[in-house]
From TrEMBL:
<protein>
    <recommendedName>
        <fullName>DUF2974 domain-containing protein</fullName>
    </recommendedName>
</protein>
<dbReference type="InterPro" id="IPR024499">
    <property type="entry name" value="Mbeg1-like"/>
</dbReference>
<dbReference type="Pfam" id="PF11187">
    <property type="entry name" value="Mbeg1-like"/>
</dbReference>
<dbReference type="InterPro" id="IPR029058">
    <property type="entry name" value="AB_hydrolase_fold"/>
</dbReference>
Length: 382
């Protein structure tokens, strides 16, 4: 079935007066934030920025990004959008921060703020791991401040906020934590396979006030997007790709100008979610924090700055990871081994009862406004 790249070909010639902004447009702009822009792109159109990328960075980006950039240069719907701001920060100290955001002018009355998700930098992955044991990262504050700054700079504009993965987390969080006058100007905040929230965040009055403007989309085989809970409206999207390739919204199914809903989350996604919940309940946050801090300190000591070092070479990658693990303090290494065992046991113990269920006769939902898409949730506060 067709996906957002086909949408670029089919609908890319229509302006927003003919076909209003929709969730597929939001997904495309969330993915555009991953392109290698720099501050010089401000005041240029997306077409001009993408032409420059294809000329100077073509060899440095994968085929999907090259295809997206090439299609945008031929799509007035996206190519004519003016870039109002590009901000990028990568900081190791005092707190890990991998942050990038793009703001474009949709029309005379509306702008779109797009947050980038995690890139391949070790700093970005370190930031993600901090979320596993603290659920609060510095980037959330940076995202909120960015939205409020852009809002103040363009005080007469309505705003869409979008993001994929961690960027989706930022999109929702920036709306939830912004001042009421900023929340009132946001039309919708779209998160594409963002990880969700714990009650510590979603129980706040500010989050609840903005809740009606939040939309999250996860693929039927989601992994990252089911890590935590989604109190906001969440929809499950059909994808023809294997489970591990469904994280990108460019690989989700669309019909004309909207996503195609799946029947619900797949059995495998539910197994993984149960395993994640069991894992987070079984190992104290302090121990998880101790492990991840030690691992990323080892990365720093070995001058590893990009996670691609573990995946680009079939032999060198595992060998490098082995060096990292063996270089850990023995006590921390023991914690790592125990955590791996627990993840394996949790997955194994959860899989059997799930695999025996006939899901064709089991209640499933693809839209949380109608029924819960999860069978369980994190039922404790921390």
């Amino acid at each position: 079935m067709a996906g957002p790249l086909e949408y670029l070909r089919w609908r890319g010639d229509l302006n927003y007066k003919v076909a209003p902004f929709n969730s597929v447009d939001g997904a495309i702009l969330a993915c555009v934030a991953y392109l290698p822009f720099d501050s010089s792109t401000t005041s240029h159109t997306l077409k001009e920025a993408c032409e420059r990328i294809l000329e100077h960075y073509k060899a440095e980006i994968d085929l999907t990004k090259r295809t997206e950039a090439a299609l945008i240069t031929k799509s007035p719907r996206f190519g004519n959008l003016e870039i109002l701001d590009w901000t990028s920060r990568l900081e190791e100290k005092p707190t890990p921060l991998q942050f990038a955001a793009l703001t474009v002018k949709l029309d005379e009355n509306t702008i779109v703020v797009s947050f980038r998700g995690t890139d391949s930098s070790v700093v970005g992955w370190n930031e993600d791991m901090i979320m596993n044991y603290s659920y609060q990262i510095y980037g959330q504050t940076v995202a909120r401040d960015y939205l409020e700054t852009i809002s103040a700079k363009y005080p007469d504009k309505k705003i869409y906020v979008v993001g994929h993965s961690k960027g989706g987390h930022y999109a929702i969080h920036s709306l939830a934590e912004s001042k009421p006058e900023v929340q009132d100007r946001v039309i919708l905040a779209y998160s594409y396979d963002g990880p969700g929230y714990r009650s510590l965040v979603s129980d706040s009055d500010s989050f609840k006030r903005a809740l009606p403007k939040m939309r999250t989309y996860v693929p039927e085989g989601s992994v990252f997007g089911i890590m935590l809970d989604h109190p906001e409206r969440t929809l499950v999207i059909k994808s023809d790709y294997p489970m591990m390739h469904q994280h990108s919204p460019l690989k989700w199914n669309i019909g004309r100008d909207s996503f195609v809903l799946a029947d619900g989350l797949s059995t495998s996604a539910r197994v993984i979610r149960h395993a994640l919940i069991q894992f987070n309940k079984s190992i104290p946050a302090e121990k998880r924090g101790q492990l991840w801090s030690a691992i990323f300190l080892a990365f720093e000591n070995m001058d590893i700055t990009d996670m691609n070092v573990f995946t680009e070479h079939r032999i060198k990658g595992p060998w490098t990871l082995g060096r990292v693990v063996m270089g850990l303090d023995p006590e921390v290494r023991h914690v790592a081994i125990e955590m791996i065992k627990l993840i394996y046991e949790s997955a194994k113990n959860n899989y059997l009862p799930f695999s025996e269920i006939d899901f064709s006769n089991y209640p499933k939902s693809n839209d949380s406004s109608k029924a819960a898409i999860f069978f369980d949730s994190y039922d404790f506060k921390d």
